[in-house]
Amino acid sequence: MAPPKESSTTIIHEQPASGAWVAAPYPVVVADGSGTVVEVNAAAAFLMDGVVPGAGMTDVAPSWLAEAHADAVVGGAVPRSPGEAGVLPSVRGHIGDHSFEAHPSWGRDGQVVWWLVDDTGQRLAEAALSTERERATFLAEASNVLMASLNTERCMLATARLAARYLADAAVVVAPASGRTMPVAHAVAGQEATRALVADDPSLVPGLSEALQGFPPVPSRWIDPVTLPGWMLPEGFTGPIGSVAVTPLPGHGVPAGALILLRSNGRAEFSESEELFARQFAARAGAALSAARLYAEQSDITRTLMRDLLPPDLHRVNGVEFAGGYQPAGAREPVGGDFYDVHPGGTESEPSLVVLGDVCGKGLDAAVLTGKIRNTVQALTPMADDHQKMLRLLNGALLNSHHTRFATLVLASVLRTESQVRLRLTSAGHPAPLVVRNDGRVEEAATHGTLVGALPHVEARSVEVHLQPGETCLLYTDGVTEARGGPLGNELFGEERLARALSGCAGLPGAAVVERIQMLASQWLRDGRHDDMALVAITAPRTTHLSAVNGHTRGRYTA
Amino acid sequence: MTALPHPLITVAVEAGPRTVRLRIGGDLDYDTSGELAAKAEACLGAHGPDDLHLDCADLRVCDSMGVSTLLLIHRSCAARGVRLHLDAPPPFLERILAVTGIRHLFETTAADEQPEQAHADEGSGPAAPAMYGLPPRTPSG
Amino acid sequence: MNTPVMTTGTDDCEALRDQLWAAVTDRDEHAAAGVVLAALDAGTDAETVLLDVIAPVQAKVGTEWAANRLTVAQEHAASAIAERVIAALARHPSTRRVPRPGRITVACVDKEWHVLPARLLAEVLTLRGWGVDFLGAQVPTPHLIAHLHTSGAETVALSSSLCTRLPTAHAAITACQAVGVPVLAGGAAFGPDGRYARLLGANAWAPDARTAVRLLADGIPAPDLAIGRTQVDDLPHLADQEYTYVARSQGQLVREVLTQLEQRFPAMNAYTSQQREHTAEDIAHIVDHLAVGLYTDDDDLLPTFLDWTAGILTARSVPARSILPVLDVLAAELQDFPRSVRLLDHARLALDATLASAGHNSGAPA
Questions:
Q1: Which CATH number among 3.10.20.30, 1.10.3720.10, 3.40.50.150, 1.10.1240.10 corresponds to the domain C1-96?
Q2: A404 at the B interface (CB within 8 A)?
Q3: What is the pLDDT of residues A388-417, one digit of tens each?
Q4: Does the N-terminal or the C-terminal CB of chain C have fewer CB atoms within 10 Å?
Q5: ipTM of the complex
Q6: CA distance B86 to B110
Q7: Shortest CA distance to A260 belongs to which of A291, A229, A301?
Q8: pLDDT-derived band of residue A12, with 50, 70 and 90 as boundaries?
């Protein structure tokens, strides 16, 4: 301890400065090289009990301040003159509930003057800001994840996983019941989410049935964890639950489900700000879930409607090989304006009826007209032997005073006789079928007629064609010949190229003919747009076996 | 409808005594056929002609909706007793009319030098021997 | 058969392959099915039949076509027969399996019609009890994604044989990953060592069906959606727009090369329109591969294709030297594009070396 005499001299000498900090709003403590408090202003005395001149810093000051003082007087370089800037480091610590920054500066004779600045508000603001930043980052990430999938199960799993990772120790997503069961997704922080179907009464979980009906969330402090049913606890979640929060997942107008957050016993309960944040997350998850649900409902409806519009798989019927290929114009539309069907003859001595056609227009309108034509032709199959009559009746059924949407089509009655196949072909305003002979010759069937559905009277001329074993008759729509592209970029595929390509398919099975033509047209197109393309190959089988290997019947071949 | 910088279709109307002529240029397809139908209907209503000429010299494309529109105009003309003419149909249009079996619905007055020419082209004789072009593939192995 | 054979040795497989090869090249679908069904009756494992009999026979079809020992028609007939045979195999009573959990979508990229590798994988997965959605050849990416949304498949197995489909495959891979579904890439397009699968960011790559099945069984981790990756992130070199330019002006480039070749080789003036078109197609394939070389920024892609093409031409008595002037004209046309020039120079050197070592004769273009 410094001698009192010297000390009193100092006080007199420093009186003006001392007076300044005595009145300062900041707490100020002066202590000497031996750790004894020399002076204290009123603010400091109010802040720290027992900090009075003469007391030891280690006895009365908070430990962090006392240690900083000891470090300063031992390690700090004492300035040669009082005006020289100190090089002492500031320190931080708590006094009571408040946080302080302590800024040291050199006083006289190796004394250190500690200015204490209360930075509690700043610290809280910083902490809040960092929480907000984390939350914003999390919400952005969560949005990326949640908006990625339109699959409801995937969305539920992602919601549970994200919530468990960031908002709680474990999370449960409950979707509104479909039938008697509720789809549920469970997740424990750091683990993969799992899904389950639960048949239970949601009203047994406090707040759950309210959340599923879209009522405001029940504050978590009202929910007693003991009342939770067993299915609520995810597998792998150990230890008793300390707190529970139930948040509705708001959808587009209807609730998309509920999010249940679980925390284990040791952790703090959900604060108001955390519950608010959970609701922000739930809003995003709910929007994603209801978009996924809407998509699933829409695609279910579309699938149901489209099922009958899709072209059928073709196979061998009554000793004749049929193969079909269809590429719709739009990558987004599985159906379009081209169609084909094979209506098998009732017995081997009755001809099968093939119809391939193209309706004008595109999109749903065309698909609906297509469906109407296919149904009408199906109903007219009893008179399949009279193509002219069929076309007249079909034309009558399609005529409409409001518009002139029409269809062009080819009818083919197909009958196997001995090893040959006999065809009767009728074109109603459609490109005539092509026949490829075994020697590579390609012939166009001499049939032509009027399109159907737009004119009061239609006419058509039929032609009879015979196929030897291995020969194929190809029915096609103009999407094939109108394909635009080629190595130079802007040429039509055209009839001539089609005939040439077909010539190279002499003797091939029907499926290979269809595949090859589709492949050539597709290559021709490169990445260009195209119209619907439909192909049907009618082939007289090369062998006389009635093959059981037609990909349709589960048959066994016995030699 | 939004006006495009380059219209896909142009329909110029020349109305004379007893005769209306529509000059069609560009693409007659799914997106544009409504415009032609509306113009034709308006002309039939306003002028009450004996003859309606559709000048197709500058027509570049005609898809199935285009054909449907020609049929609609034909129906409208037939109901009013108006003769419908297709003038200077390009070969591709001739071919479409021939295949769909509706050539006879339209009177032709000019520039119809090769009526069934397109049809005669599609030879059914022996195709040329197939040359090979290399199918694009990836070397295997 | 009185004594069922429970295991099938290499020799047995070889015998079966020979029988199937004979039936396939004879275009006898009936005999081909007979070979396969008889093998199953005799106790041969269906997976062995698929992967050690049918798959090698199909591979042989490709190499025999390249060597000009099979016609295009025979090749198509062979794949049509393989399809039927596989369908027959799938219905054989011995192929019933206990279902296991898990759903895989198997698809070919858009404009990819080589369906058989994907079909074989789909069948093997089915045999192992997986739920399989086989979408077939030429699956437009929007269809694939729509399917993933509704089916909830855990992984997509994506097949491509043509390396010209790599840009499309890349779009499909990123689209699948963007909806949170990992992609296993397979097929010749991705390179013999899978380098293009890695380059395009596929989550896994398999050189064959057996590896694919093993990787799928081990589980392929889902992509991290939080990052929000895009296609260009994988391939920063695309920023120079060279790929875009060459791909866009493909028709124009082909026309230009054709015109200049005609000036250099007067014999071409006597070409029929079909010969001209085939020459144009061959040039178009070279430009396509140059474009994909630019897309992947890979020096080896174009030389590998040209090397293969040289073999095809030689097998058909067309001088392989005819490729050289095409490269020269392209290099002159694209002189302002440094990466194109680099790839074409590299390809020319490689082709020169091949021709020198094989002692090819010089000649006019194909």
A1: 1.10.1240.10
A2: yes
A3: 999 999 999 999 888 899 999 999 999 999
A4: N
A5: 0.82
A6: 9
A7: A229
A8: very low
